[in-house]
Amino acid sequence: MPDLDTPTTVQTPSAAAVKPVPYRGGGFAPRPSRLVAPIFFVLLFSLWEAGSRFGWISPIVLPAPSEAFQAFMDLVNSGQLVLHLEASLMRLALGWVGGTVLGLAVGLAAGLFTLARGGIVPFVAAFFPIPKIALLPVFIIWFGIGEESKVATILFGTFFPTVIAVYGGVDNVDRGLIRMGQSFNLGWWSIVRKIILPGALPALLSGFRISASIAIILLVAAEMIGAEYGIGAYILLAGNLMAMDQLVAGVAILSLLGLSVSWLIGRAEKIFLRWRA
Amino acid sequence: MPDLDTPTTVQTPSAAAVKPVPYRGGGFAPRPSRLVAPIFFVLLFSLWEAGSRFGWISPIVLPAPSEAFQAFMDLVNSGQLVLHLEASLMRLALGWVGGTVLGLAVGLAAGLFTLARGGIVPFVAAFFPIPKIALLPVFIIWFGIGEESKVATILFGTFFPTVIAVYGGVDNVDRGLIRMGQSFNLGWWSIVRKIILPGALPALLSGFRISASIAIILLVAAEMIGAEYGIGAYILLAGNLMAMDQLVAGVAILSLLGLSVSWLIGRAEKIFLRWRA
Amino acid sequence: MDLKLDGISHAYDATRVLNNIDFTIKAGQIICIIGPSGCGKSTLLRFIGGLERPTEGQVLQIGDPPAESLNPLTYIFQDFALLPWRTVRGNISLVLEDHGIRGTEADTIINDVLARTKLSDFGAALPKQLSGGMKQRVAIARALAVKPACLLMDEPLSALDSQTRELLMDDLVDLWLKEKYTACYVTHNLNEAVRLGHRVVVLSRRPGQVRDIVDIDIPLEDRLKHPALLQEKQDYLWNLMREEARAADLELLDA
Amino acid sequence: MDLKLDGISHAYDATRVLNNIDFTIKAGQIICIIGPSGCGKSTLLRFIGGLERPTEGQVLQIGDPPAESLNPLTYIFQDFALLPWRTVRGNISLVLEDHGIRGTEADTIINDVLARTKLSDFGAALPKQLSGGMKQRVAIARALAVKPACLLMDEPLSALDSQTRELLMDDLVDLWLKEKYTACYVTHNLNEAVRLGHRVVVLSRRPGQVRDIVDIDIPLEDRLKHPALLQEKQDYLWNLMREEARAADLELLDA
Amino acid sequence: DDKITIGALRFTSHAPSFIAYEKGYFKEEGLDVELKFFQAAQPVAVAIASGDIDFGVTAMTGGFFSLADKGAVKVIGGMMAEKQGFPGNVILASNAAYDAGLTTPADLKGKSWAMTQQGSSFHYMAGLIAEKNGFTTADMQLKALQKVGAMIGALKSGQVDAMAIVPHIAAGLVKGGAAKEIGRVQNLGDYQVTTIFTSTRNTEEKQDMVKRFMRAYSKGIADYLAVMGDQKKDPAATEAMVDLIHKYVYTDRPREKAAPSIKAGAVYLSEGAALNTKDIAAQLAWFQKNNLAPASLTLEKLVDTNFADTTN
Ligand SMILES: Nc1ncnc2c1ncn2[C@@H]1O[C@H](COP(=O)(O)OP(=O)(O)OP(=O)(O)O)[C@@H](O)[C@H]1O
Ligand SMILES: Nc1ncnc2c1ncn2[C@@H]1O[C@H](COP(=O)(O)OP(=O)(O)OP(=O)(O)O)[C@@H](O)[C@H]1O
Ligand SMILES: [Mg+2]
Ligand SMILES: [Mg+2]
């Protein structure tokens, strides 16, 4: 450091080297580009198609995308797609709504009462990680081979993550806001309704995102049990018949279903969480 | 409000009503109690056992916990447990480590480079929600029926959530710290190594927690493919034979496995994230 | 209504936080509580408002609050504590709804407090659209809506930048000149204390004890006209606290 | 080494943030930049340190930085920017490692800067164990370790409570008296500006323009002895800014 | 020696593999055999397609046809067949359905039928029943339940009306009163239930090896038929063979508990691994008609008749 007693400069600007300060910022900010993704997917599919056409990829290993698309169009044209979708969406809706309503109630209890939390949290921790396919035989016995067991599989799958999301969300509501409510003598139920629930809404919505994906993932497992129609049943049949084109088409339908649900929840977030900074 | 011109009180304390200020705080802070959980579980199991003993719960619907425990002890005494665990743990370890290493590399790329992010993020979004059981036939064809396909199932299952956790973690590293690094002329690789990776560690560890649960959940699916030994295979066989006691024992083993892994990661968090406030 | 703190002591588990605090908040007065970081100021304010209970001693209400007061002891928080999902009007109506005040009755009150805090144009804005100073003004409006007998303010200005703080301090003084509200004002900013307080209670570091109670006799409206006198009071307070502040700063937290 | 800001203007997308800023930072001087919230002070400081590039104009280095300076333009940030996973020593060694300084050489430097910032006893502490004031002292020690030719400080005290701020201001003055460092100090606290600045650059609200440049001729060490003079300067600055601050405060953000 | 891998299931019907292995018939032909065990039949065909194993025995399923169509596998001989007088698949009705009048296979029209998966042999058996009795599977409610265990559970609890199952399991169910026998698959006509198959590459590039395999395997079949086909003829030999089979089947049960099941499960196996090509053609046609097999698959593509006799 310059060792001066008074704050003046030693060098006259004219005599000294003048150069801009070196730039050292930028980077470390990758952005989801609108261009890269389409190009990437087009490239991927072209390579895949070419690979199949030229025989680099054996049809046993992977069907050409065009074949999978053909299988999909067959499904559309035969009118089967509607039947499959109808069956699956009904199961998804019933199971997800059921699991969500129960999960909300139980999660809220765990978020508000010490006693409930003590029972619920370890229970959920123990049951959440159990693979639902392992329980299929149990579900068959409990709920039979009709719609009930399929809905139950999805309900079970969505219940636990919803409970976790709800009590996590309640825990994360700013205690300052709750204290504010108390300081204005708001009633208990007012605090829950006007402060805790809206405050937990962001966590709830992202919980819904997760539970919806889980529900879709469980569709295949659920439709293992005596389902005639359903996207999961269609995929299972394709797997049985080693019909890779149909398998890929079915998986693509599930994937699209997942993306649509995720988009819907994104819209809901935009609308209901407008207030977020 | 008292309409006074000078700050003095109108009332003499002796004449006025004296009472403590009303209490209106407390509540809204449920705690995981050390007492409730054990009591709850003991109660649950006793009721269940009693229900089975007295015939309220049919053994077809649910075995008594004691029977499930007996099945577990049979497994231990026959020495089969070790074989099953050995097989499953090997698959879990290989699949999880493979998926994690790949996921780290790909996720880091997505977290650092715009081009990589553009390709990886939509790819992951499209593939993550695909149920792995739907892909089992594909895996068998790609990787055969040996250990490879089982490991691949788990690897696939852990890869995608790891990617998401890693690039999410990198995104959430305080940009202020990165800017600080740049302002001190730290090299690109130094910033990645000394700022971004440690900063993303909390997110990585909670990603590991998720990917480990997924790996355990996928064990059953993975061992659907011609596995002789393995907890998943044991459960599948029990389901096949409708041996509910063995089924419950197997599911309990998975649950314990999940809890152990979660505990391990909790320890790792305690050790590696000591620095967190 | 006066408030009397009667031998208040408190400990969280093994940590003694407050030690035998005694003082009175007289109606129409602003009492400032100052003290170094972590000495228990916020805790004390929570006791005064009945949000928490001290292990020893009690806070007494002497006299009844005015009948029209909906919420005699009303807080204004450092972080504003506005519901981000409600508009400015919605945030104020929140504290009226539970008293059954809705519709035009509520509108009248809301319009009145918005006018008094110069917020009339911002009724429909969401908190995220407001600067920090505006948010705190909304919190003040909300507090006024329930006609408090005593305002309890926990560092209401310390989340604001110093220019906004200056502006809001003027507003608080103006408001007091008009309404003569009672207040207990916690801060560690000595300048705020000498600008706003009729009486300043100085706490020691943890466990907080009353070190001194300083009366400032200059009328609020005249304080800016006597910068030297104020500076003198401020320096007196700073000398009382300097070493404590330094020591508090050097303490290792949960080492 | 002096720094010259040469006709700097900047816009983020459609928002003009800075408008034709010109001034010089002379070696050995502390320049304070003040202005209302959002007027572009932080942006300007990023340009000076080369972390971002303005759309127009440039920042020039006049003369070479001293040879021993490892990082001529060194920041001290409002939020301290310490790596929470490194100890105090580790945080300082971080900025030396990339210059190949390790082992005893590094230890010597670290011990020296810790001593100068009165932190010698805290080398092994983690940031989470330190109070805000201590953390900022660590950030200052880290900055000193690379022997900067100019310190760039972005509201270094505004995250601290006012008592700690007072203490740290004293420390910064003491340090300047010993080392005569060059600094560009951004703040919106006018009191800090008149206590620390040899020269105060006043910016208007967004888009930031230079409204005035005020020299304060009282030597730093004597400033507390002339409270009236300081108050006068501060009042002058406050009068320059009052209306702007009020207007900035009233602005609705991304309505 | 040629190293080969055989995919096997731990079923009594796979006994010839174990016999030929244990008695050294493969060794005699210069084949160094490794047995690889599977939990289900379907993956055996896939494993041949993926090159994991060389030979397998399974039922004709939709997946198998699909792999054959892609040129991955070829049928080279016959194995288990339904033949009058031998134990074979039994058609069971649930007690409730039986009481309600489901007493013969002809009554199955409009009833529900449990099977593992669509395109499985259980599915085909439903097709056989339907065709024989003048209706189609569309007139039945087919319930794919993935696992035999689930099928049994569903039948026991009356959630499905009927199913078909291997004889020794059927015997247990009927004896325990859990279900009623209403017919046998063998009474519906010829049915080549399982076949021996290998990869197309083996049939083209290693014909000699395949031939040697078939010779050894046929010996195993012959031994099995000789002893288990008429178990009363030579009880000592029967017990010895049960011992041999028990090394591989029902290993988790003690011998005395396993023996009855092994004996009861002695189904008919085609002598000399002869293949009923006519029935194979019929099966293929049925699968194709029901969209369970690719239309482009022909019998030539499916079967290589160079390695075993064909009947019919
Ligand atoms: N709920 C609590 N449980 C345990 N300890 C607490 C709790 N609340 C506060 N403390 C501790 O009590 C002491 C006093 O806290 P308090 O917040 O009242 O101090 P303060 O004077 O308001 O400090 P500051 O100036 O930082 O706002 C601190 O040491 C704090 O860590
Ligand atoms: N990276 C960015 N992209 C877009 N706009 C930005 C960016 N950084 C800052 N701005 C905008 O530029 C303006 C100036 O920001 P800046 O942070 O420089 O102001 P400031 O004077 O430091 O404010 P404060 O006093 O609040 O710290 C603000 O309106 C801000 O919203
Ligand atoms: Mg406080
Ligand atoms: Mg700034």
UniProtKB/TrEMBL annotation, chains A, B:
Compartments, record wording: Cell membrane
Entry superkingdom: Bacteria
Keyword check for Disulfide bond: no
Principal cellular location given in the protein's record: membrane
Gene3D superfamilies: MetI-like (1.10.3720.10)
Pfam families the UniProt entry points to: BPD_transp_1
Entry-linked InterPro entries: MetI-like (IPR000515), MetI-like_sf (IPR035906)
Keyword annotations from UniProtKB, A to Z: Cell membrane, Membrane, Transmembrane, Transmembrane helix, Transport
Membrane-crossing segments per the record: 35-56, 93-116, 123-145, 151-170, 214-235, 247-266
Membrane topology value: Multi-pass membrane protein
Domain ABC transmembrane type-1 residue range list: 85-265
CDD domains: TM_PBP2
Family per record: Belongs to the binding-protein-dependent transport system permease family.
Protein name (database record): ABC transporter permease
UniProtKB/TrEMBL annotation, chains C, D:
Transmembrane segments annotated in the record for this chain: none
GO MF: ATP binding
Pfam families: ABC_tran (PF00005)
Superkingdom: Bacteria
Gene3D superfamilies per the UniProt record, alphabetical: P-loop containing nucleotide triphosphate hydrolases (3.40.50.300)
Keywords for this protein: ATP-binding, Nucleotide-binding, Transport
SMART domains tied to this protein: AAA
Family, per entry: Belongs to the ABC transporter superfamily.
Protein name according to UniProt: ABC transporter ATP-binding protein
Taxonomic lineage of the native organism: Bacteria, Pseudomonadati, Pseudomonadota, Alphaproteobacteria, Sneathiellales
